[in-house]
Every structure is written in structure tokens, then in C-alpha cells.
């Protein structure tokens, strides 16, 4: 399975650093050339054009919420791919989402893909601190998706990156705990939780 991160803003960079710490190869792409930034983060990052990065099996969407449709249009087909939605729709009116959780609204731009919400609930600075906080244990990353196999696959990736995955179930059920809507943040957003084995 191969991976790509679209967007190397603060969240995308924090996720890329997690890949680099584990030496896992990941393509990175954005609206500007990322060769220098990718090289600075680590040798396992491969800078690509967005059109090439979206060919990965698993695409991590770490772009501003309003640009997700542009990314959706760059792939010839999203069929069978996993798209990890790390966006937040804060300040997006619920009417623009059609009354749906933000990830369900994002899914419309990626027909055929299996959307999984993850990596969005922690502030970028906290996520960038890595999976092991000073008090020990492993920092929690929540995972929610409507396809059980895709959610399990993302949970395995979260674990491989060193974090503790906590699956919340379907996007419209437990996943609502990590969805921003309008001018409100869901209950688990910003919660820096740690799991002790």
C-alpha cells in the first residue's frame, strides 16, 4: 500500500513528520513545489505533483476545507482508494454541507473512494510533538468511517505511525464527535488524550 499527503500546511507537515519518524515512504504534494520542505522533513518523503500523488492507494487530505473539491477533480478515478479526511469545516455554514457531517460532504467530491476521518482533532502543534507525550503512553488519534475495512486499515496506519488509534464507528454516529460544523467544534476536537497499554 502506498501513501500520499496532499497539503503541507501545519497539519500536513505534522503528519509528514510522523511518516518520516518511522521511515515510511510517502508522496507529498501541494499547490506550490515542496521539494525543499520535503527534503528538510526527511528522506522518506517524495515530492510530487498533485496529479501524481492522487494515484496513491491512500490519500491524506490535509488542505483547507474549501479546496477539497479541486483535489477531487484531479484524479481520473477514486474507485477503491482510501481518502483520509484531515480537514475541518469550522466556519462553514451547515447549509453548505447539506445537513451532512463534513466528511460525508467531502465524500461527494471523491466518488468511489472510501472516506475515513482521522488526524483532524488535534491542533497541529500537538500532533507535531509526535505519538509519545512526556508522561508516556501513546497519543490518541480518532478514526471514523462508514467502511469497516477502510477504517481498520487507517487504524493500522495510525498504529504504525506510533499513535494509539481509537475507532469511533460510522461518520454520522461516533464520527460526529470529531466534526466541526458552522462555528462549533465537536466534543473530542482539541482533546489531547493518551492511551496507556
Automatic annotation (TrEMBL):
Domain Pyrroline-5-carboxylate reductase catalytic N-terminal: from-to ranges: 3-88
InterPro entries: NAD(P)-bd_dom_sf, P5C_Rdtase_cat_N, STEAP_metalloreductase
Keyword Lipid metabolism included in the entry's annotation: no
Entry coiled-coil feature ranges: none
Annotated signal peptide: none
Pfam family, one: F420_oxidored
Keywords: Oxidoreductase
Protein name: Polyketide synthase
Organism in which the protein naturally occurs: Caballeronia sordidicola (Burkholderia sordidicola)
Amino acid at each position: 500500500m502506498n501513501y500520499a499527503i496532499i497539503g503541507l500546511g501545519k497539519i500536513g507537515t505534522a503528519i509528514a513528520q510522523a511518516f518520516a519518524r518511522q521511515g515510511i515512504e510517502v508522496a507529498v504534494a501541494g499547490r506550490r513545489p515542496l521539494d525543499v520542505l520535503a527534503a528538510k522533513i526527511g528522506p522518506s518523503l517524495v515530492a510530487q505533483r498533485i496529479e501524481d500523488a492522487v494515484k496513491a492507494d491512500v490519500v491524506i487530505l490535509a488542505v483547507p476545507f474549501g479546496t477539497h473539491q479541486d483535489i477531487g477533480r484531479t484524479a481520473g478515478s477514486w474507485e477503491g482508494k482510501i481518502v483520509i479526511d484531515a480537514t475541518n469545516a469550522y466556519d462553514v455554514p451547515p447549509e453548505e454541507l447539506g445537513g451532512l457531517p463534513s466528511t460525508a460532504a467531502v465524500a461527494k467530491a471523491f466518488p468511489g473512494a472510501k472516506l475515513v476521518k482521522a488526524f483532524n482533532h488535534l491542533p497541529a502543534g500537538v500532533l507535531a510533538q509526535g505519538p509519545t507525550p512526556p508522561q508516556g503512553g501513546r497519543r490518541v488519534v480518532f478514526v471514523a468511517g462508514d467502511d469497516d475495512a477502510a477504517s481498520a486499515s487507517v487504524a493500522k496506519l495510525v498504529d504504525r505511525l506510533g499513535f494509539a488509534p481509537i475507532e469511533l464507528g460510522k461518520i454520522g454516529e461516533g464520527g460526529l464527535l470529531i466534526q466541526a460544523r458552522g462555528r462549533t467544534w465537536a466534543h473530542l476536537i482539541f482533546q489531547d488524550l493518551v492511551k496507556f497499554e
